[in-house]
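[job 0412] stage=complex_fold ligand=(2R)-2,3-dihydroxypropanoic acid status=START
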Amino acid sequence: MMHLVRPRVHVSEPVPREVDEALRREFDLVGTPQGADGIVSMLTVTVDDAYLEAAGPQLRVVANYAVGVNNIDLAAARRREVVVANTPDVLTGATAELALTLMLSLLRRVGEGDRFVRRREPWRFSLEFMLGRRLAGATVLIVGAGRIGRETARLAEAFGARPVLAGRGDDLDSLLREADIVSLHVPLGDDTRHLVDARRLRLMKPTAVLINTSRGAVVDEEALAAALHEGVIAGAGLDVYEHEPEVCEKLLPLKNVVLSPHLGSATRDTRIAMGMLCVEALRAVLLEGRTPANAVT
Ligand code: DGY
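[job 0412] stage=complex_fold status=DONE, emitting structure tokens
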């Protein structure tokens, strides 16, 4: 189809060069959402009713550069007949790998060891020094049986762990009691906000560790910090934070915590693939007049 006027697209943050070039081949990039036909939003942008109103009635599609869409008011988008698309599948492997990385770093005390070496503390090899635990043999409770959860289970199994998948309707409280590692892979919504709170932390074994690569607010971060200080659970590996990019101060001095700055999908290939899915969604709606494969509204 020939388009005499190229659709206008606003991109909320810089994107990889390959994605930028792909966007510029088909669209006119504009500096603000006002007047745009399509928007590429990062998870740091709140796309609520006010944002959509300000963008204007010509807006037809928001392509979120993430699989999680908790930054978008989907009901408001639906009311305004704005298609919302996300970037599933292409980041599944990278995010699951990061969950495994946090598990292994925590169990084998890699973060703690790294900080120890950098402090130039005196040390020599000794048999009882900084002993950790194996992932092999551990019961890994994967909360959320979607793509990333299932891939994390597959990787954990390859390390000799025993993955248990918990989906909607499963008795999370009972499963938490049995787990050595709890890894969170649920989207953030009203039903999952503070899914792991003070009460549920107390159900976990005192030797258990919690891994979160989903969204920070799935965990009550204050309650987690308190639980770690009091020895209610043994450790945590966090990639996401309740008030991102702020991190609860009380977590910082803890040895038994590994922290990374929201790196789940942070490999170059993954980020390019995510961007190309956004381009595809814009193309579908703005150039071909069809619903994109990754539409969530
Ligand atoms: C997502 O896609 O939702 C991740 O959190 C960032 O890539």
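The chain has ten helices and eleven strands.
[job 0412] exit 0
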